[in-house]
Amino acid sequence: MVNIFAYFIRYPNSVRSKILGCDLHRLDEGPSVQTVLTREDGLRYYRTMQTMRRMELKADQLYKQKIIRGFCHLYDGQEACAVGIEAGISPTDHLITAYRSHGYTYTRGVSVKEIMAELTGRSGGVAKGKGGSMHMYAKNFYGGNGIVGAQVPLGAGVALACQYQGKNEVCVTLYGDGAANQGQIFESFNMAALWKLPCIFICENNKYGMGTSVERASASTDYYKRGDYIPGLRVDGMDVLSVREATRFAADYCRSGKGPILMELQTYRYHGHSMSDPGVSYRTREEIQEIRSKSDPITMLKDCMISRNMASLEEIKDIDATVRKEIEEAAQFATSDPEPPLEDLCKHIFYNDAPLEVRGTHPWMRLKSIS
Amino acid sequence: MNTSPSENSCESCPLVVCLVSRLAFECTVTVRDALNQALDEELERDERVFLLGEEVAQYDGAYKVSRGLWKKYGDKRIIDTPITEMGFAGIAVGAAMAGLRPICEFMTFNFSMQAIDQVINSAAKTYYMSAGLQPVPIVFRGPNGASAGVAAQHSQCFAAWYGHCPGLKVVSPWSAEDAKGLLKSAIRDDNPVVFLENELMYGVPFEMSEEAQSKDFLLPIGKAKIERQGNHVTLVSHSRMVSLCLDAAAVLAKEGIECEVINMRTIRPLDAEAIETSVMKTNHLITVEGGWPQFGVGAEILARIMEGPAFNFLDAPAVRVTGVDIPMPYAKILEDNSIPQIKDIIFSVKKTLNV
């Protein structure tokens, strides 16, 4: 049903919004606490976050139905991080993250359909069903990485390539509070600072590394200071505008040739570490509920837009309905698309190579690998 | 017709030797200089190629393999790293993912253990996991295996460990031509290549054919070479042990035993066909390697021969000559007896031939 009233209601095109200041480390100034939210941006952020939210909830459902197998680390609660970061950089910039990656896969341009079909292991998945939850890739998006912390040197390497190729691009390199103690991260900090790599290191602190709270894992939980000689800022990761402004600030910093910068996003995950973790043995249901009711990123944006008259409840509901439909269709595709053919088994071992014989499970099984 | 040789090809030749051999259009080049030439040529050819590792730039390379390159190409292309293998190997892999063609040097492959997760999980598996979306054109190179007096932590051979993993190519050159042709191919390959050099071979000179002096001289990865023809027994080896096999073959020839010596050149993909063809001719097989016996290169070759067409041609069980199954000791007498010696190869040949 067309909302004819929409034609008559005038919405402000943009509003000024005040955001929380950031805690700073080795920085004289931080991102501005004033930002402008346009109606167009607001609706887009809302829609993107809502899509991510519903996609993750659908994944939860499919996992419980055993249609998704193995590891499944869900991102619901943290949407403002992925959306805010993407809003602060360009599609020509680069991004790499760890295994809680479905949200980033979406913001970096892969369709919900292709993401869900990858989770269900079908040939229509973004990695043709060969990667699964933790191994999805796109242009300027380097996954999806399963080994905790390993993506951080990779991201610094992408930043090196940016610097080498001189195209004024930056690399956003994400890791969690659990990974923050990894030695290779400090090795990356050292080289990034030494060589002034255009790398934005971002710690998504969702307070728990699997079942271990930050207090039990880190001698210092000021993750934004852990870069030591690298300037840092601590940002409210539940507010998409705060994340966006901080990211813009960080990207400007890197692009100016000053070297790397570190951002800590304080955020929260509603689900447990993965689908095998109910998530309530190491935290209380009350804590989860508190965050949901007071700091949910999607609710907060919706409330902001409605209270500032930038959107009507009707409009929001329309978006919700559209998103729900999109997710349903994607899930439908993901459950009906065929699994990859057996011929794919040995493909993609090498790139640009002559066909290779691959040993099967016994000596009489000779398989062929094609690039 | 050999027109003016490139600046690099005869840098290492003493003038007299060079003049004499130039008449034959050949040159004598050490393995070190051959590697240096390969690096220089590939750096010049493709701007995306760069070298990083400890001491590769201003020190001219811990083993002088990268001598002169920093002076010629500068900080951007030749990068000295801090002593942080896991970090810089990961950085190299990330750079490869983003469009560059890094050469990541490990001062020795013993140190690659610190970074092995990046080599296997980030480099080797990514093209497959991404179903072809993300290639990783990188070369990991450095000296591998036993050296002289460097003891247990610095003497391990990693051919079997890396050779085990799909998604990697693993190359092990012996001669100067091998070194040059295979390193150039490795750099031009769009996939992760582990390039296992040998410190004791760096200073060894070899004749380099005119063809090998060209800037486009490439050797195919995955193809073994028959260094010496023979009819009585097949000796299969890689890297420095090829020298020992040839020496053993020379001694045995005096007793009328003709060995066919195969230089594997590549560990993975293994050129099983070359070995099978040879075994079907000689009916006897001995593998020779510096690494440990259990789950080693020789073990794999023997398994393949068992499973393949050459088995029926064996007149005796195939055997392996390997390093002793111990951590490498320091004292010279102990070290010498920890790795295969020529007499071990000769003994094994005679046992296999029952003479």
TrEMBL record, chain A:
Domain Dehydrogenase E1 component residue range list: 47-342
InterPro entries the record matches: DH_E1 (IPR001017), PDH_E1_Alpha_Subunit (IPR050642), Pyrv_DH_E1_asu_subgrp-y (IPR017597), THDP-binding (IPR029061)
Cofactor: Mg(2+); thiamine diphosphate
Subcellular location: Mitochondrion matrix
EC number(s) on file: 1.2.4.1
Superkingdom field: Eukaryota
Coiled-coil parts of chain: none
Keyword rRNA-binding listed: no
GO molecular function list: metal ion binding; pyruvate dehydrogenase (acetyl-transferring) activity
Gene Ontology CC terms: mitochondrial matrix
Single GO biological process annotation from the record: glucose metabolic process
Reactions mediated catalytically: N(6)-[(R)-lipoyl]-L-lysyl-[protein] + pyruvate + H(+) = N(6)-[(R)-S(8)-acetyldihydrolipoyl]-L-lysyl-[protein] + CO2
Role noted for this protein: The pyruvate dehydrogenase complex catalyzes the overall conversion of pyruvate to acetyl-CoA and CO(2), and thereby links the glycolytic pathway to the tricarboxylic cycle.
PANTHER family in the cross-refs: PYRUVATE DEHYDROGENASE E1 COMPONENT SUBUNIT ALPHA, PYRUVATE DEHYDROGENASE E1 COMPONENT, ALPHA SUBUNIT BACTERIAL AND ORGANELLAR
Name of this chain's protein: Pyruvate dehydrogenase E1 component subunit alpha
TrEMBL record, chain B:
Reactions mediated catalytically: N(6)-[(R)-lipoyl]-L-lysyl-[protein] + pyruvate + H(+) = N(6)-[(R)-S(8)-acetyldihydrolipoyl]-L-lysyl-[protein] + CO2
Superkingdom in the source lineage: Eukaryota
Cofactor: thiamine diphosphate
Localization in the cell: Mitochondrion
EC number assigned by the record: 1.2.4.1
GO cellular component: mitochondrion; pyruvate dehydrogenase complex
Keywords associated with the record: Carbohydrate metabolism, Glucose metabolism, Metal-binding, Mitochondrion, Oxidoreductase, Potassium, Pyruvate, Thiamine pyrophosphate, Transit peptide
Record function comment: The pyruvate dehydrogenase complex catalyzes the overall conversion of pyruvate to acetyl-CoA and CO2. The pyruvate dehydrogenase complex catalyzes the overall conversion of pyruvate to acetyl-CoA and CO(2), and thereby links the glycolytic pathway to the tricarboxylic cycle.
Self-association and partners: Heterotetramer of two PDHA1 and two PDHB subunits. The heterotetramer interacts with DLAT, and is part of the multimeric pyruvate dehydrogenase complex that contains multiple copies of pyruvate dehydrogenase (E1), dihydrolipoamide acetyltransferase (DLAT, E2) and lipoamide dehydrogenase (DLD, E3). These subunits are bound to an inner core composed of about 48 DLAT and 12 PDHX molecules. Interacts with DLAT.
Designated name of the protein: Pyruvate dehydrogenase E1 component subunit beta
